[in-house]
Amino acid sequence: MGFYHRHILPRMISGGMRNSVMTEKRPRIAPFATGQVLEVGLGSGLNIPLYTNAVEKLYGLEPLELLCRQSESLALQADFPVDVLTASAEEIPLPDNSIDTVVSTWTLCSIPDIEQALTEMRRVLRPDGRLLFMEHGHAPDANVVKWQKRLAPVLKSLAGCDPTRKMDDLIAGAGFRISELDAGYSDGPRFIAYHYIGEARPA
Q1: Helix (H) or strand (E) holding 195
Q2: Which helix (H) or strand (E) is 121 found in, with range?
Q3: Where do the domains of the chain lie, and which CATH numbers do they carry?
Q4: Do the Cβ atoms of 121 and 90 come closer than 8 Å?
Q5: Helix (H) and strand (E) counts for the chain?
Q6: Span 103-143, pLDDT tens digits
C-alpha cells in the first residue's frame, strides 16, 4: 500500500464522511444495532456515539491504520467495549454465527470484492441476525447512470468508490432477504446521491 493510500486517502475519507448529508442520515442506522455488533468500515468512528446501550460489544472493522487510530478516542468514550480490527471485509476475523448486527454505512461502494465481503458478513451473522445498511449506488435514471459509469474510473482511482453498484441486488445475491428498503435521492450531485437504506436478514 503506497503513500497515497496510507496517508492521503484516509484523511479524505475522514473529512468526506463529516459532510452535512451524511451527518443528517447517520442516525438512521447505528441506533438500531443490538447485541454483538460488527461495523464494516469503522472509519474514524463517527457512528460510535450513535450506538445505544443495546450494544453489548462493538467490533469495528477498518483496513486503513490511520483511520483506526483516529477512532480510538471515540472508542474509549463508548459505554460498551470496542474492539478495532485492522482487517479487510473480504476476510473478517470473527467466528461463524457470532454477530447479532452487522452495520455498513457508505462502505460497500469501496470494497474491492464486494460479493466476497457480503458472503463474509452473512457467515458471521447469527441465523436471526440483521444487516443494517446505508449505501449510495446505481441510480434508476438512465442519464444519471451514464454519468456514474463515466465518472466511476476517476472515483475508483481517487477514493476507491464505485458508484455503479446496485446495492439491493448485491445484498440479495449474497444470500440475504431484504426486509426493509428506502431508496431514493439525497441532496448533492445525483451521480453519488442515490441511496439504499435498509435492513436485511440471512435468507
Answers
A1: strand 194-202
A2: helix 114-124
A3: 3-202 (3.40.50.150)
A4: no
A5: 8, 7
A6: 999 999 999 999 999 999 999 999 999 999 999 999 999 99
